[in-house]
Task: structure prediction
Amino acid sequence: MRFWVQSWGMCCGDVRRNNLNQQGQLRHVMLRSALLVLSFMLIGSIFIGNAYAQVTHTVQGGETLTQVAARYGLQVADIAAANGLTDINLIEVGQELQIPIAATPPEQLPWPFAEVDVAPTVIVQGQVARVRVGLLEPADVSVRFINADLAFASVPSSQIITEQVTDNADASIVGVSTETATDASEDALDDASDGLLEQTSTSSAEVISTEQIDTTSQPASPQFFAQGLVGASVLDDPSVYDLELRAELAGGNVVTTRYPIRVAAASYERESINLSPQTSRLLDPTLVANERARIASLCTYTQAEKLWDGTFSYPVVDPVRTSPFGTLRSFNGGPFRSFHGGLDLRANSAVAIYAPANGEVILAAPLSVRGNTVVLRHGLGVCSLYAHLSLFMVEEGAVIDKGTLIGYGGSTGLVTGAHLHWEIRVGNVLVDPAQWANQDLGLD
Result:
């Protein structure tokens, strides 16, 4: 097992050029260094300024992921998410695992906040986490994470109590003190235009610092709950960010507080794409920006209601992936400053496209880059998008159920081969649809 500190952030002592005994100075420096390293090995991480220690664990013979997680006091899901593991039973001897060190939460929260529960405790770039807020009196809860604003839905306390008894979910709680086959050969261009639609990072250069928390005495347990999802962009810098929480009480009073969440780096592939002069002219920056703005405006509405039940399914039967989410892209030798914002699935004009979850059709129209496109709103700031369709089977304004036929695959828009481009946005942050397909996000 290897440990290293990302940034010492301090000096081990001034070595003054005076008459002090140099041998004594050397012993002093060595002692301080040894104590610092020893303290790191004992507690597993060191916080210095805004830098967090990074820990790498090398898998030993006979070791399981459950044993690794227990060694560091983490949940299996946290380590799996930080390392992009889709099968927790498939780890190899000698494999190096990144051990996510979560941010340190405050010990207490101001009234009416009683606890904050995040699962998984660390969000990987391009993924989401479920956040549940426990309250001591009813309130409308909304949040802001990095640059995304979201409304949370109220949850019956009886549902939470049942979940706590039957399911020990991955979570970091703070409160009061008392997969599918891949075929990369199809679609050679791989819808290069999709990568141009997300060009800039949503993270700020300065990490928000946690404010002082009021430590007023509070009852021991929450009586009311609200929950929702937050996501991290592929382009958000790995760091610790504050989840800004806002509770509006019945009398109109508003209470705010902050809760730190760590965003961990993901390993996405890189792809260099050379566009012909003709295709480059079609990808007019103004045209791309206008389309991006139109979709963003549709998905900005923060609806404090979850329209879907259970898990999302894949929008096609027997899905075959032709291009993964998150691939960092360079066009015509330029910098890697964009990424593939969706998951591409094989789908010609004979392949039916189905709604993966209940939702409202908020767009069914042709777009310049994405071609014939359907956008569904699912509540809690979640939108899904289906592009390059050959035919629409739904109309705007319709409220549809999971499994409803919404269209057929195709090659409309700026593509070189038929496929379905599937996007999911949370608060207008593009996240990996593969995380949603047939997986429980912890909201039910």
